[in-house]
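TICKET: design request
STATUS: open
ATTACHED STRUCTURE:
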């Protein structure tokens, strides 16, 4: 399937999703918001891959939101009824955009972001919803919204404060300054920094293939536990992981992992099952 904003390939059980509008600095136009969740849900729901890598093209990872997305809200600003509805219409639009990045968090498989050049505004919303972030030496991240009179609202705030020290995150949000890749790594926002784009892609795809070689059912459990631990107390997460393993632990997978390690071969693990659609109404 062809997309306006992305190219998608799947190799070695790794789905590589590439932002492909470098001439527009990979700004997030209306098609972006439709296509990204469609791509992610297709990969996840149909168990097409075990890991997703999101990378980009051109000098910048993403210039962030194309403000034309909001044109429809203001199109009838002279109409008094529309003016009264403006707040709710804006909220509905933002809620839909938030769901686009939340799909990265909710999908059953890990999502890795590979960042080059500028990761600006909405780009930060995107990468903070991923499981891990990697960057080139020339990369930088900026919570740019304050520079255009806005408060970031698509996902940065609820996530970035759990990824790095609060004081540093507040400074970025209040100043809109650029955080270079080396500083982002030191703060824990970025896992690793690479010399260039090709080197980064080679390294990140190698990490993705390493993850894809592990038992997918257990990786899914790890992602669920990581997300739960981030949002709950230690006691709640201990209880949750106990219940999870009591119902989901697969002894055949454990035995296969032990045999594969002993025999120094790749493991033959079960993939995640496709997500079943809701049951149809029996009366229909």
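STATUS: resolved
RESOLUTION: sequence designed for all positions
ATTACHED SEQUENCE:
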């Amino acid at each position: 399937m062809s997309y306006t904003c992305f190219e998608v390939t799947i190799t070695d059980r790794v789905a590589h999703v590439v932002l492909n509008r470098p001439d527009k600095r990979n700004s997030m136009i209306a098609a972006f918001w439709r296509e990204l969740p469609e791509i992610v849900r297709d990969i996840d729901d149909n168990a097409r891959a075990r890991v997703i890598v999101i990378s980009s093209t051109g000098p910048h990872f993403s210039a962030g939101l194309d403000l034309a997305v909001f044109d429809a809200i203001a199109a009838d600003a002279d109409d008094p009824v529309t003016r009264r509805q403006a707040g709710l219409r804006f909220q509905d639009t933002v809620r839909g955009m938030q769901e686009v990045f939340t799909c990265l968090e909710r999908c059953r498989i890990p999502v890795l972001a590979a960042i080059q050049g500028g990761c600006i505004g909405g780009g930060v919303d995107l990468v903070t919803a991923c499981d891990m972030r990697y960057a080139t030496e020339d990369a930088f991240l900026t919570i740019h919204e304050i520079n255009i009179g806005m408060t970031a609202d698509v996902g940065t705030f609820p996530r970035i404060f759990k990824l790095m020290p609060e004081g540093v995150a507040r400074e970025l949000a209040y100043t809109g300054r650029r955080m270079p890749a080396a500083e982002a790594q030191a703060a824990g926002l970025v896992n690793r920094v690479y010399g260039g784009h090709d080197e980064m892609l080679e390294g990140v795809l190698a990490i993705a293939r390493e993850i894809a070689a592990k038992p997918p059912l257990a990786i899914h459990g790890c992602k669920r536990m990581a997300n739960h631990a981030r949002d709950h107390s230690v006691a709640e997460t201990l209880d949750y992981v106990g219940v999870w393993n009591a119902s989901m632990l697969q002894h055949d997978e454990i035995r296969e992992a032990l045999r594969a390690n002993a025999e120094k071969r790749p493991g033959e693990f079960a993939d995640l099952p496709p997500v079943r659609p809701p049951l149809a109404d029996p009366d229909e």
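CLOSING REMARK: Strands lie at 6-11, 14-19, 51-55, 111-115, 118-120, 132-136, 140-142, 179-180, 192-194. The first helix runs from residue 30 to 45.
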